[in-house]
Amino acid sequence: MMFDWFQAINHGIDGSFLEKVREISKLFFKLPADEKKKYLREENDVEGYGNDMVLSENQTLDWTDRLYLTALPQDQQRLQFWPQNPTNFREILDEYSSKIQLVNEVVLKALARSLNLEEDCFLNQYGTTAKMQARFNYYPPCPWPEKVLGVKPHADGSAITVLLQDKEVEGLQLLKDDQWVGVPIVPDALTINVGDQIEIMSNGIFKSPVHRVFVNSKNERMTLAMFCMPQTEKDIGPVDGLITNERPRLYKNVTFTLDFFFKNYQQGRRPIDACRI
Ligand SMILES: O=C(O)CCC(=O)C(=O)O
Ligand SMILES: [Fe+2]
After folding, report:
1. What lines the ligand 1 site, CB under 6 Å?
2. What's the predicted TM-score (pTM) here?
3. 114: CA distance to ligand 1 center in Å?
4. Fe2OG dioxygenase domain spans which residues (predicted)?
């Protein structure tokens, strides 16, 4: 199997800028609850500040606070959910998104070349605009760490996810050969994994890894996941060069909307299973 998760260093984003990104996240989560509530997610929406969408009484909630925002394209930003405080929040997130967009392009081209395909074959499925969702995750210390998870097992619905990990506190684990393996902290690295949409586009050659986050009783942890993907109105499917007699088409063409993703995810189903032929 090909790699599905790696740590990128020399990605072109300064350590000092990554610090600024961590800083706006921290300043936001440290605001008084009343102030954060101004950006509260609405009941049936994913964007904004809050926790899981509650879809059933049996659902286990994640031990986390998060702020979920559409970062790109800029004209789809819903600024009512963007913190006014810290005052440079928007400037920093905009700059970070455009830098991550470049990382996304480099990675998708490299993935294509590694399969001897034309380098734009994945990017061509993006349509006219790329989409990017930012998820700021805050995991408070937890008095019963063995009883809950920071994020329950899931795979990402993105094409790729670029994660800025906490500088000091580990928590991310990925399922490899039925074992949970910790993802270490590498200073100034970006942790990159493929999501369901690259699994589909690559006709299953790249696998969108299942991962989860554990919490601990002593330390809080903060991360920022950037979900990079094609514009959501556009359907995607396995690229032509990867459908052969030996390897028939494994996935349908689908329009991978956020709604489709979350309805499955919150009920403990993998959205990608709904895409298989
Ligand atoms: O916080 C982490 O380490 C990972 C978070 C994650 O998997 C996600 O936001 O999809
Ligand atoms: Fe994830």
Report:
1. 135, 137, 151, 156, 163, 171-172, 211, 213, 223, 225
2. 0.95
3. 26
4. 128-230
Nearest CA to ligand 1 atom 10: 156
Domain 5-275, CATH class in plain words: mainly beta
The protein residue whose alpha carbon is closest to atom 5 in ligand 1 is: 225
Cα(33) to centroid(ligand 2), Å: 25
Cα torsion angle, 211, 215, 216, 222, sign: positive
Per-residue pLDDT of the chain (277 residues; tens, 9 = 90+): 456 789 999 999 999 999 999 999 999 999 999 999 999 998 888 899 988 766 666 667 788 999 999 999 999 999 999 999 999 999 999 999 999 999 999 999 999 999 999 999 999 998 888 999 999 999 999 888 888 899 989 999 999 999 999 999 999 999 999 999 999 999 999 999 999 999 999 999 999 999 999 999 999 999 999 999 998 778 999 999 999 999 999 999 999 888 888 778 777 788 999 899 9
What spacing in Å lies between the alpha carbon of 118 and ligand 2's midpoint? 28
- d(Cα 24, Cα 30) in Å, to the nearest integer? 10
User: Which of 68, 133, 213, 215 is the pocket-test mutation for ligand 1 (most atoms within 8 Å of CB)?
Assistant: 213
For residue 64, the ligand 1 atom closest to its alpha carbon is 1
Q: How far is the CA of 262 from the centre of ligand 2 (A)?
A: 12
